[in-house]
């Protein structure tokens, strides 16, 4: 992962601010650098972002809020949150396969409904009164569904659809042909939105891929360190355990050259971890980098006997990053996407039934029992592995608080309260 240091002013949905950022791979994805939060002042009050917060450009917001200047979405919790945000947008826009229609598919369905109504208007006098009523009812449901839309194309389309339902021209005369013309213009706006969404999806998809790449680049650093520290199973049935490479190098019979090599490995890793800036990895990387530097000093000074307990502490420290990775990718992200899918399916059903806009339906396991059950199983597996993690020797112990949030999530799942479960899981991840 290539990164460049830049100082620039960026725009968000509320205002703009200047800071020093790390840019990921020339993508305009930015990470806040420094040791202090950066502040953004706007009419509704100040907002601060911690070092390591991630800012991702959003082309649709740019068009709405800032003209030619890129507008950024803020993700104060870092890369995992940004990845979920990008993935939600891609899924909702129909770029990735889903069990329910994305926005592109919904727009196609709406255009079909609107075109049927235009056909009705153009065929005025040729259809039965019952047929005309059925098509007008479908068009009324379409207008109602656009009542809360904020996109410019959609709000304009709705206003034109309303005029079209009145079947009158500018002089107040009954004029189906004029109504058909107005509805045709509305369809044009929906087609423009459809083209816009396809463009947005392509851009979001590329950025989401880069965010995933950034997460994997950080995890690869942790995997490399784990490979040096992790004991290896030997023998045909794995009956013999061989110490990790770093511990092998520090055994008494290895000599001064091996200790020097140990120092080099530790120092290289310490320098690599010092470069980690993005949340949530930054928090663990600071602690891990400090422990690596202390172990390198021991090796340089020839204190080989002090190294094994330091290696054990390093193993304990990085285990929490692997736990977070599992929690984010195997539980939080799938649950977030499942909730999104269920909500979208409910919206589509209400739209088809002409129920209009009302409060979101409660998320219940019965809506997708197999998928919810898989998340419950994944959490149970995670909880078993969490029991093996240790925060012994940490300046700020975290296991009790993480476990407490996991228990809240498990209880919420049992109570069929999936939104509460999601928030508890995110709270657990934020501690890591």
Describe this protein with a few key phrases.
alpha+beta; 3 domains; two-stranded antiparallel ribbon; 9 strands
Task: Outline the structure in words.
The structure is a single chain. With 432 residues, this protein is α+β, with helices and mostly antiparallel strands. Helix content is 61%, strand content 11%. It contains 13 helices and 9 strands. Strand 2 (16-24) and strand 3 (29-32) form a beta hairpin. Residues 93-101 have low confidence and may be disordered.
| pLDDT averaged residue by residue | 80
Through-space gap between termini: 23 Å
Class based on secondary structure composition and strand pairing: alpha+beta
Low-confidence stretches: 93-101
Secondary-structure map:
Blueprint: E1 3-11, E2 16-24, E3 29-32, E4 38-42, E5 45-49, E6 54-57, H1 59-66, E7 72-75, H2 79-93, H3 103-122, H4 129-145, H5 152-165, H6 176-229, E8 232-234, E9 240-242, H7 245-249, H8 256-274, H9 281-300, H10 307-352, H11 369-386, H12 399-414, H13 418-430
Antiparallel strand pairs: 1-2, 2-3, 3-6, 4-5, 6-7, 8-9
Could you write a compact summary of the structure shown?
This protein has about 425 residues and is α+β, with helices and mostly antiparallel strands.
